[in-house]
Amino acid sequence: MITEFSPTEFTPWASLIGGLLIGAAAVLLMALQGRIFGATGILAGFLTPANSSDWAWRAILLAGMASGPLAFAALTGHMPVVEVPVSTPALIIGGFIVGIGVSYGSGCTSGHGVCGMSRLSPRSIVATLSFMFATAVTVYLIRHVFGQVVGGA
Amino acid sequence: MKHLLTYLTGLIFGLGISMSGMANPAKVLNFFDFAGTWDPSLVFVMGGAVTVSFFGYRALFKRYETPAFEPRFIVPTSRVIDAKLVGGSLVFGVGWGIAGFCPGGALPALGALDANVWVFFVALVAGIFAAKFMMTLTAAKAAGRAN
């Protein structure tokens, strides 16, 4: 049983290789479609499409993204580990809040954090610092101040 | 060919997320738990991704005027740092800290067929629509005042 107090294994190499692939995908999408690889923007444009051709590349890209775990399984023989140390209500409340925040903030970890930071966009640097700060404070409050009130498994 | 390459681009991203640990909320939340079970792995994800895209974008823009399938590069040009950007990002961080998934981690993780990811995804989509609705209301109010 995964709880919020379970440590996870430090995986510098797997994480670095994963990061290099994420960066490569961001450059490829710019080379092909001329777009920023921001999960928020891609999903929002998929949900409320401007026109059918704009919708098609998003749908195909999302299908490719969701095939990632299968490619991972083909390479390693097992699905990527998805351990959820929070309750279902926390997933629902957190997911809803994330949806509102990334809409108003115009981006998330991929759009601002990777694509925007690498373009040295001042907006993205401010956004990334803001959400990293808020995430760290939230995790601290849930785990070390409020105990299991919100985040308990 | 165009669709295949777009699909493969998504696949590379999804594979990268799967390898990196970003699809695993336990790992993501431990990265932010400096006072507890800290796991610094995600520094390597961000470092690797930003390094490749930093040099990759530069090489790309230097060499090419347009992308392969579209008439032009569509890159955000706004430099406005306002309450909407900072407030929205802070709100996103609160949600990320509660749930442990961010959109870029969750979308590929949908393919791992774990019910938790789909629960988060449905709530994420509801949040995006709620925000769009609120923005429409705000815009309508502003238009009403202008008249």
TrEMBL record, chain A:
Q: Provide the membrane topology annotation.
A: Multi-pass membrane protein
Cellular location(s)? Cell inner membrane
GO cellular component entries: plasma membrane
Main localisation? membrane
Which InterPro entries does this UniProt record tie to the protein?
Sulf_transp_TsuA/YedE
Q: Does the keyword Metal-binding apply?
A: no
On the tree of life, the source organism's domain of life is: Bacteria
Question: What is the protein name for this chain?
Answer: Uncharacterized protein
Q: Which organism is it from?
A: Celeribacter baekdonensis
